[in-house]
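Lab notebook, bench 4. The sequencing result for the construct came back, and we need a structural model before the next group meeting so we can plan mutations. Quick request posted to the team channel:

Model the 3D structure of this chain.
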Amino acid sequence: MQTSSYCKISAVGTLQMVSVPELLRCPISLDLFSDPVTLSTGQTYDRASIEKWLACGNLTCPVTMQRLHDTSLVPNHTLRHLIQHWVLGHSSMFTVPLESTEFTLSTLKHNLQFRESTTMTKLETLRIIKLLSSESSTRQASLIREGLFELLLQVLFQFPVADNAEVIELALDGILNLSSSKGWESLNMLRNESNLVRLVFLLEQGSSRVKARLCNLLEAIASCSLTHELCLILGRRERLLQVLVSLLLDKSDIREATLKAICSLCSLEANRSTAIREGAMDGLVAYMSSALYASRSRNRNVRLAVGTLERLLASGVGKRRMSEMENGIAVLVKMVFRVPCDDQGGSEHAVGALLLLCSDSEKARTDAINAGVLTQLLLLLQSQSGERAKSKARALLKLLRAKWAKDQAGL
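Done. Here's the predicted structure in token form:
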């Protein structure tokens, strides 16, 4: 969030800089609102600034440049309450009458609950909640105690999707901020069948930002012990896994978030068979394959992908699925020793995955040798890789030695 800075003289006489959030600044003057009012376009300005703009004969909204058929100015009480709350923390700078934080939170709650609230009112309210929920854990606890976490979930699951992408996005921002605090129990709303259907629908039809935020939420759910049962329910949801795999294969800008969601769901052993059946391994191999040719900055999650693949290969169904994939072993071999070798953990998982495959399958051993695994392993053993990676490499070399010697004798 962009901010402007105001100078303030502290009690000890030193000059301090106070950053004012963009939400609290008039887009015309760039100063803190003193009397926020909203135009028919939904944009909010300081009364003095917009009145001056209109007095000069301008009949457009300064931000959107839409022509104004209605120049009435509606006081934005919700934003005024937020400004008063913000000023409370910087009271030596201002002389604004202050109201209680509880009243401010009650107003936000009312705006979300009141059926007659306009979409613009809900947007303003959600922007404020997003800002407040990104503050301290104390502020997050206050929002949860006031019931705003449940209301955000209701917005996510009940608000019409058509033409309301920003509402859904802002609700998700607030949910993610609050879920890191004490809001985990409220997430059990996801156990409801209609809410699960809505979640999958948003993953399919939502904006890229909505999809990314939902993947972040799935990752958070899978990472918390308090939502273990919910993670199991999500992991058994076949359509959910199918959509996640399709997003991973799509190579879009939300691919990294999707990868983390899939890997987090697969952290529970009970979820792995469903994930394999719905194509998770195919998605992981495709991700690893593209990462081989990507820049180092985009490879930061490769270790996570290879590690998850190794977990999936610990089961018989995982090994069978890998044996059906045309390039699975070849991609794993390339991951054994990457140049530049910027992820030693990825190498360890790649060798571990190959060890699992080659221990049970003559064909896997043949495919690995044909793909050049012996050279890769020797390079790994001469590198600065960790001892665990080298130990696995030695075990795999020993396993492949007999096969290699037999092939050489037959030449």
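The mean pLDDT is 83.
Will bring this to the meeting.
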